[in-house]
Amino acid sequence: MLDFLVDENIPLSATAALREPGHRARHVGDVGLQGAPDEIIFARAQEEGWIIITRDLGFGNLLNYPLGTHAGIVVLRVPSTFTAPQIRDILSTFISDIEPDMLNRALAIVEPGRYRIRRPGQS
């Protein structure tokens, strides 16, 4: 089972897609982080051991968030026109396709129809 923190740029309903297979998921609004800067969201996620799920491409910057220095980050790269159901579907498919330990301390970039995961120790 994984623990996720869903950023405010992801629909609140996406937490259900994470809970269905038995993971724990909370939205930033549920934990008092609505509108908080990335640094605060990141720090809280690390304190709690939460994997961040976001559309904020800044979280994909390996210079600012090096592999292995966090619980895990999932960046969704989807068009701004995507609806909440489309985002939930992509996230649900991704979560069902991977083994949970693949996200441990890793960066996952998820796009429609594909994903890539960079783990600590990979070049």
What this model shows, in words?
It contains three helices and six strands. The protein is α/β, with parallel strands linked by helices. It has one domain (3-118). Strands 2-1-3-4-5-6 form a six-stranded mixed sheet, with helices on both faces. The longest helix has 14 residues, at 84-97. The radius of gyration is 13 Å and the shape is globular. The mean pLDDT is 92.
Instruction: Report the count of strand segments.
Output: 6
Low-confidence stretches: none
Tally of discrete structural domains? 1
**Strand order in the sheet with the most strands:** 2-1-3-4-5-6
Query: Pairing-aware structural class of the strands and helices?
Result: alpha/beta
CA distance, first residue to last residue: 27 Å
Strand content: 15-25%
Number of H/I helices: 3
What attributes characterize this protein structure?
six-stranded mixed β-sheet, alpha/beta, 123 residues
